[in-house]
Amino acid sequence: MTWRHLIPVSVLLVLAALSSLQLNQTLDLGTQWRLIGDPHLAQSFDDFNFAYAQFPRLVITLLVGAVLGVVGSLMQQLTQNSLTSPLTMGTSSGAWLALIVLNIWWPQAIADYSALAAMGGALLAFGLIVLIAGLDNMTGLPMVISGMVINILLGAIAAAIILLHQDYAQNVFMWGAGDLAQNGWDQIAWLLPRLTPLLILLLIAPRILTLLRLGHQGAQARGLPVIPAFFLLMMFGIWLVSASITVVGLIGFIGLLTPNIVRALGARTPRIELVASLVFGALLLLATDVLAQWLSVWAGQVVPSGVTAAAIGAPALIWFSRRQLKAQDGMAVALPGSRPRISVPLTVSIGVLLLLGVALYIGYQSQQAGLALAWPNEFQWALRWPRLLTALFTGIGLALAGTILQRLIYNPLASPDILGVSSGATFALVFSSLFLGQSLQSTQWGTALLGSLAVLLVLIALGRKQQFAPSSVILTGIAMTALLQAFVQFCLAKGNQDSYKILQWLAGSTYRVTAEQALLLVALVGAMLGLSLMSSRALTLISISRSFAQARGLSSSLTSFSLLVLVAILCAVVTATMGPISFVGLIAPHLARMLGAQQAKSQLLLASLIGATTMLWSDWLGQVVLYPNQIAAGTLVAILGALYFLVLLVFNRLFRR
Question: Contact, 365 vs 376, CB < 8 A?
Fold first, then answer.
C-alpha cells in the first residue's frame, strides 16, 4: 500500500459517510447541506434530528474510529505484537473502572476530570502489564495473558462497586456497552481539543517507530532513548483512547483489527500504516455503526455500536490469532515447579483450613450489634446450609473441570473461565432469560449445558489443527469472553431493574440458592467427581500423549470427547446454580500440582479440596468483610484469584532473571 492507494480509500470513506446520513432519512439533500453548514437553521423535528443527532453521530464516529485505528497501530508497532490493542492490554477496563469510581464518589468532577480519571485508570492497567510481563515480553503471549487477567481483575472490582452503589451507577450501563448516539454538539466540542496529541503523534511517531524496527540496540546506536520514547508514545496513545472512550464508552476490536487489515493490504512503513489505520479505523467504525443502527430498527430496541463491534471483532480476532500464532509458539509463561510427592503437612493444613471455614460459616452470625460467634437458630440454619453446600461443591466442580481441561489440552492456563466454557453457559442463560422468558432464579441445567457444549465444540474445531496450542486456545477463549461481555453490557444497557438482577447473578453469589438447588448441585457434582476418578487412568494416559494412550488400547478421541462433555456438565450445573465464577478452575489445579499431586487421581482430589476451601472462604469473607453490605463470592474470588495469578507471573519473571 502506498500513498496513492489511500486516495480511493479516502474517497470511499467520504461517500460512505454521506450515504450513512441517508439511513431512514426524510430530508432532501439540499436541506441536509444547509443544516450541515448551519445547524441553527433547523425548524422542524426532522431538521433538529438531523442537525443535532444524526450528523453529530457521524462526526463522533469518524473521530473515534480514526483515533482507535491510529492508537491500535501505534501499540502494535511499539510492542511488535499484532494482537496488541486497548482491549487486550486492559487499558479499556482500567479507564472504565476509573470512570465508575469518579461517577459514584465524585460526580461533580465528571465534567472537568473524566478524561484524566480515565487516563489514570488506563495507565494503572498498563503499568501492571509492564510489571507482570516485563518490557522484554511485550512482543509475545505473556502481554496478552497479562491483559486478560487485568481485564478480569478490574472488571470484577468495577462490578462490585456498581452492586454496592446501585442507585448511583445506572448511567454507566449504556456507556459500558459503547454508545455513539449524540444529543447535540457538546461532547464533540469537549473531545476535539483533547485530540490535539493525535497531530503530534502523526508527526513524531513515524521516525521513532522506524528506528525501533532496528531493535533496541540499533535504535540506541542511532541516538534514540528507547525506553523514554516507548513510554512517551504509549502515553500519547493511552490519553487518546481515554478521551475517546470517556465520550462514547467501551468499543473494542476496532484498534485491534484495523492495523491488521492495513498490513494485510500492504502497508509497510510506519507512517503509511499510521495514516492508513486512521482512514480504515474511521471506515470500519462507520460500517459498524451503520450496522448497529440497522439492527436497532430491525430489533425495535437500541443495539449499541460496541456490541456490534464485538460481534464482528470476536470472530476476526480468532482468525487473525490463528494466522499470527502457530502451534509451536511457546507459552513464555513459566509456572512454579512442583514437589516430587504430595506434601502431607500442607495438605492437612488445607483440610484444617476447610474445617475452620465450615465452623466460621455456620457459627459466625450477624447480630443486632454486628457479628458474633453463636450457634445458628432454626431460621438461620435454613438459610446457611444451602449456601455452605453450594460454595463447597461449586469449588469442587470448577476444580475438577480445570484439572481435566489442563490435562486434556496440555495447557497450564486452561480453565473453564479463560477458555470461555463458563462464558458459553452464561451466554445461554442470560439470552434465555431475556428473550425466551426463562428465569435466572430457576436452575436451567439444559440451557447452560447447551451453551458450554457449543463453546467446547468451537474450541475443539479450532484447536485441533494447531494441536491445542496455548496461544490459539487462549486467544479463542478471550475472543469468546469478549463477545459475551459485550452482549451482557447490551443487556445491562436497558437500565431497568432486570439490569441489576443480571449483574447480581453475574457476580456469582450463593445468596439466591434454594435448598433444592443446593442438594441437586451436590448430587450432580458428586456424580461427576466419581466419574472423574473412574476416568483418572485414561486421563493420565492422555495427558502423557494421545499416541501413548492409543498404544495402550485407549480410544483417545472418544475418551477426550467424553471428558470434555463431563467438563461441560460441570460448568453448566455450577453456572446455572451460582453464576459464573473465575479463576477457581485455574488456581486449584496449579496449587495441587505445586503441592506434589502429579498423578491424575491425586490432582483431582487435592484440587477439589483446594477449590472447596477457596470458594467457602470467599463466600464467608464476602459476607463479613463489609457487613452489613455483602460482596458476592464470585466477585471476591475473581479479585483474589487475579491477584494471585499476577503475583505468580511477577515472581516467576523475577526468579527467571
Answer: yes
Residue 365 β-bridge partners: 372
Higher pLDDT, 430 or 623: 623
- 194 near 513, Cβ under 8 Å? no
Cell of 591: 496449587
- In one-letter notation, the amino acid at residue 655 is F
> Phi and psi at residue 328, in whole multiples of 5°?
-80, -5
Query: Distance of alpha carbon 248 from its chain centroid, rounded?
Result: 19
Burial 289-328 (b: 16+ CB within 10 A, else e): bbbbbebbeeeeebbbbbbbbbbbbbeebbebbbeebeee
Quickly count: other Cβ atoms within 10 Å of residue 348's Cβ: 10
CA-to-CA distance for 217 and 628, rounded, in angstroms?
A: 57
Global pTM reads 0.77
Instruction: Give the C-alpha distances (Å, rounded to integers) separating 424 from 301, 484, 552, 572.
Output: 24, 8, 34, 9
Across 600-606, average pLDDT: 91
| DSSP codes, 455-484 | HHHHHHHHHGGGTT-HHHHHHHHHHHHHHH
What confidence tens digit (pLDDT) does each residue in 625-648 have?
777 677 888 888 888 887 877 777
DSSP per-residue string spanning 418-455: TTTHHHHHHHHHHHHHHHS---TTS--HHHHHHHHHHH
